[in-house]
Amino acid sequence: MMRRRTTLLASCTAAALALGATACGGSPVSAGGDGKALDGQTITVAGVWSGSEQKNFQKVLDAFTEKTGAKTQFVSTGDNVSTVIGSKIEGGKAPEVVMVPQVGVLQQFAKQGWLKPLSKTAGAAVDANYASVWKDYGSVDGTLYGLYFKAAHKSTVWYSPDALDQAGVKPPATYDAMLKAGHTVSESGLAAFSVAGQDGWTLTDWFENVYLSQAGPEKYDALAAHRIKWTDPTVVEALTTLGKLFEDKQLVAGGRKEALSTDFPGSVEKVFGPKPEAGMVYEGDFVAGVAKDQFGRKIGEDANFFPFPAVTGGKAPVVSGGDAAVVLKDGKNQKAAMRFLEYLTTPEASAVWAGAGGFLSPNKKLDLASYGDDVTRETAKSLVAAGDSVRFDMSDQAPAAFGGTKGAGEWKILQDFLRDPSDPKGTAARLESAAAKAYKG
């Protein structure tokens, strides 16, 4: 999910790759290798990405090859990263590097003894280039295993300016105002929201933004660590708030049944595709990449966003996610793998994907000029400026059995809640039952 670099940035990045000396911002960088020191070596990198995300990550891999001589190959795991990587390790075909999309999975891998701690070089770069929260999420029991290369700003609501203009509404500042604006959009001929209910992870993101704003960061942290139960009144309150949106036929494009058969790309298509069915779609900054690359929308002109609004007197939430690079102990080429992670800590590596689009970096040393449009630039600025106050995606912090498995745990229970949002207390009880089993395991 993507954006185009400017001519100036392309020239600057190309020069940086050729000279291996500086990032576009002028800071010294190192790819973790000198010249073609890794000639003849190959690493396999596994991750969830497919489609345009995979293509853009391939540009980062190619830049590493150009710089070091190491060959790379990417393997897409699909959503069930834990199961796929476990099978590869058992079969003696472990990749060298995995881009792990959930904190809970990273912790699981570390506790199973699968991960190699990051090198001192990589650790020093994390200390220098990242807010400490990213180091915390990449560490287990005080040891740094994961480098957060790609981040997501998951507190963004994307909209068609034409749809809102036609309805005569402005981007809202509160959750209640957003629902009111949604009804006005609906009355003008389009549904308010396109909801990607086929992908359970999108529903966890909806819940997390409502919960963080309504319950506050302390409760959010406690629930994420399962220090409070999912039957807590704050959970029931957040589910009740979310259920009012889900059950409103005016607000959800095609109703709940159609939402449950709509995947994430399809939800973006319903707003920004050739035959719009809704005026808004909630999801992270990566919506822009799909709107631009698949449907030709110009970001900032015919596709824009507003921050996820504050709920019932709370503060506007800032929820993030991210993909952490880890090195597996069972991978055959440890040296090249660790050099690759050292490369990923540099602004230079981030600039490659930032220029291609559909990407945010938590690396505060990356020049914002690396991003190809003002909207992405502002989103990236907001994420970095949030520093240690940003809250990581709650489901990504949970054990994979609860927060990161298709057709199970939180994903499945929230899909059931979208299907029938009439019983928030019962849904909370089912969430607690599933969470208790997963955390105990």
Write a brief caption for the model.
Belongs to the bacterial solute-binding protein 1 family. The protein is of the alpha/beta class and 441 residues long. The protein has helices at residues 7-19, 51-68, 81-90, 103-111, 120-129, 132-137, 161-167, 175-187, 200-215, 217-224, 233-246, 255-259, 264-272, 287-293, 334-344, 347-356, 374-386, 394-397, 400-403, 409-419, 424-440; strands at residues 42-47, 71-76, 97-100, 115-116, 139-140, 143-144, 147-153, 156-159, 191-194, 278-282, 304-307, 319-328, 391-392.
How would you describe this protein?
Pfam families: SBP_bac_1. It comes from Streptomyces populi. This is Sugar ABC transporter substrate-binding protein. Keywords: Signal, Transport. Belongs to the bacterial solute-binding protein 1 family. The chain is of the alpha/beta class. The protein has two domains: 208 residues, Periplasmic binding protein-like II (D-Maltodextrin-Binding Protein, domain 2, 3-Layer(aba) Sandwich); 198 residues, Periplasmic binding protein-like II (D-Maltodextrin-Binding Protein, domain 2, 3-Layer(aba) Sandwich), CATH 3.40.190. Helices cover 49% and strands 13% of the residues. The chain contains 21 helices and 13 strands. Strands 1, 2, 3, 4, 7, 12 and 13 form a seven-stranded mixed sheet that branches. β1, α2 and β2 form a beta-alpha-beta unit. α9 crosses α10 and α11 packs across α21. The longest helix is centred in the N-terminal third of the chain and has 18 residues. The protein is globular.
